[in-house]
């Protein structure tokens, strides 16, 4: 069984379960709120409330090890087609591909996820290349070491979304966006013909309780994302956008606005049918995108 943790700007998200053949069983799931400003765009600012949340999870679920999901603008990602290379050669190749996209001063750590053979060019493979700031990564390693929770595996949000599309009907070769709402923060990932293209991050300034203002803010964010994705720089127009992190009531208002103003179909991201939680509890991708998504794509 896997214990999966993802720390958002607003809470520590925990999910325990396992995948067996075509089904995913969820044994436990919980979100514990953290102080505002404790985490910003995946960067740990003040770990006090995060430690309190982790200690609560550790005590309640006898948590001594986990899989950690990271999401931040401190992580550079790019889907790349490469020839057959050895591991060391791939890392050297990634350094050449990704170092030019980084304008910071920290040391970068390179890694990749294998996505499969490239059908268009014989003898080549598709990978998700990634570069992560060393200091950013070390802050998480130190946090979990202090909490005495072993990190067994680290994955990133984009890799979770790439693997997840294989299990949601209609997404494999589609052009679409997934917009995840976390309080006043939005993370949007765009796919073109089934291939990952880019991720953007925005902040909302309206109160989520103000339905008109909130839906207006999100609609403007979708419009900006659509324009940016369709630009000559990205050439990744999409026809569908899927949401997570919103209520159905919020969704109805947002989807109506988007349909009226843009040539887009908007809906909640569906959860595959073969996902079930013990005790008949309701669990879905809408509120556990990366933790549940990791298990589905495992």
Account of the protein in words:
- This protein is of the alpha/beta class and 298 residues long.
- It folds into three domains: 2-72 and 137-163 and 273-297, ATPase, nucleotide binding domain (Nucleotidyltransferase, domain 5), CATH 3.30.420; 75-134; 170-268, Nucleotidyltransferase, domain 5, CATH 3.30.420.40.
- Helices cover 30% and strands 37% of the residues.
- The protein has seven helices and 16 strands.
- Strands 10-6-1-2-3-16 form a six-stranded mixed sheet, sandwiched between helices. Strands 13-12-11-14-15 form a five-stranded mixed sheet, sandwiched between helices.
- Strand 12 and strand 13 (195-203) form a beta hairpin.
- Helix 4 packs across helix 7 (289-297) and helix 5 (211-230) packs across helix 6.
- The longest helix has 20 residues, at 211-230.
- The relative contact order is 0.15.
- The model has no long low-confidence stretch (mean pLDDT 93).
List keywords for this structure.
alpha/beta, six-stranded mixed beta sheet, globular, Nucleotidyltransferase, domain 5, PilM, 298 residues, 7 helices, 37% strand, Pilus assembly protein PilM, five-stranded mixed beta sheet
SSE layout and pairings?
Layout: E1 2-7, E2 11-20, E3 23-33, E4 39-40, E5 43-44, H1 48-61, E6 65-70, E7 75-83, H2 87-98, E8 108-117, E9 124-133, H3 134-146, E10 150-156, H4 157-164, E11 176-182, E12 185-192, E13 195-203, H5 211-230, E14 240-244, H6 248-261, E15 265-268, E16 275-277, H7 289-297
Parallel strand pairs: 1-6, 3-16, 6-10, 11-14, 14-15
Antiparallel strand pairs: 1-2, 2-3, 4-5, 7-9, 8-9, 11-12, 12-13
Helix pairs in contact: 4-7, 5-6
Protein name: Pilus assembly protein PilM
Organism: Intestinibaculum porci
